[in-house]
Amino acid sequence: QGDRRIFMVAHGMESMQSRSDEATKLIEWAFQSFQNVKLAKAGDQLEQAPVWYGKADAVALTVAKDLVVTLPKGVQEEIQAKAVFQGPVQAPVAAGQPLGKLVITSSSGTTEVPLVAAAAVDRVGIFGHIIATLKYLVSPQG
What is the model's pLDDT at position 9? Predict the structure, then answer.
């Protein structure tokens, strides 16, 4: 139906017709009971990671491709997602570079999806390096 497909193997029935009837019932149940949910679109900023010695102070974190999951209907509201990464990230950063993971939790369980840099961040030159170091020494929190 639409862009959803359900694959099934049924065996142990008395005839091809009974196998077909049971498979039809199960497939209809699956389409009625489950839905595809787009949790994130590729390129959308989900979090920001601070960048050390970069021409930008932070880089957006995203997923490399659209994140679509199949869930029981009515469970979408209880989904929780948390970005996990080690920061600050050392420049240079390449677009698409893996920098962390998105941990998704629901009543169905937990799954992890890689988070990547949404854009490239070049490294600052020697003077930018000195300024960043001085800023850090004056204010270590940021």
Answer: 84
